[in-house]
Amino acid sequence: MSEKLLFIPWFAGILYSSIPLFWFAIHPFTSRWQKMQRSPYRILLPLWAAIIAALGAVIWPWQSRQLYTAWWTWLPSLPLFWLGLRTYRSIPSAFGIERFTGQAELRPGEFQQTLVVSGEHATMRHPIYFAHLCMFAAFTLGSGLLVNFLLLALSVFLTFPLMIWLEERELVKRFGPGYLEYRKSVPLVPRVVFYSYKVRSQTDAAPPLRKL
């Protein structure tokens, strides 16, 4: 694979690795961003670009170093691409663009605050992050880039788990018992046998689980 084409998976690795860092720049300071009269994305998007540029500058010397170069390694990455793209495609219909982009949280006065438990969220608690990691793993497995494997390992075992742990703490504060019930019923990642979660009224004593 030529160095020009390797730039695509290399940049994808930087992009997906930057997501937790961007998240850490937002969530500890959510109350401050919410107080801004103008859109906080006027600051946040340039900040994200700076994070991506900084990561790129740090790992640029190793941007073309590969553990292997066989073309057929892209074949086992295809299911990961499919799974990631399929998840991305299904998220906006139930989750909404405003939640997907974070606007609902940063501008709570303009968007309704509801706990989404339908669509992909009925089978796993964080489908967006799951899709990110599927795509990241696909680019890494296909390209064989050393730096991507290192960044993927860091994402899987450190930054993404930390981000999810902190986010779930926030969700418990925002939605209380509703999220605790949802967390008990829906796994972090999809099981082999999928379940859907159904919101029930307080008078419904049946467990909120049913097989699809």
Q: Per the principal axes of the C-alpha atoms, what is the gross shape?
A: globular
Based on the coordinates given, report the CATH architecture: Up-down Bundle
Helix content: 55-70%
Radius of gyration: 19 Å
Report on the architecture of this protein.
By secondary structure, the chain is mainly alpha-helical. The chain has a single domain (3-191), classed as Up-down Bundle (Four Helix Bundle (Hemerythrin (Met), subunit A)). Helix content is 62%, strand content 3%. The protein has helices spanning 3-26, 30-35, 41-59, 78-95, 97-100, 103-106, 127-143, 146-175, 177-185, and strands spanning 195-197, 209-211. A two-stranded antiparallel sheet has the order 1-2. The longest helix is centred in the last third of the chain and has 30 residues, at 146-175. The model is unreliable at 193-212 (pLDDT under 50).
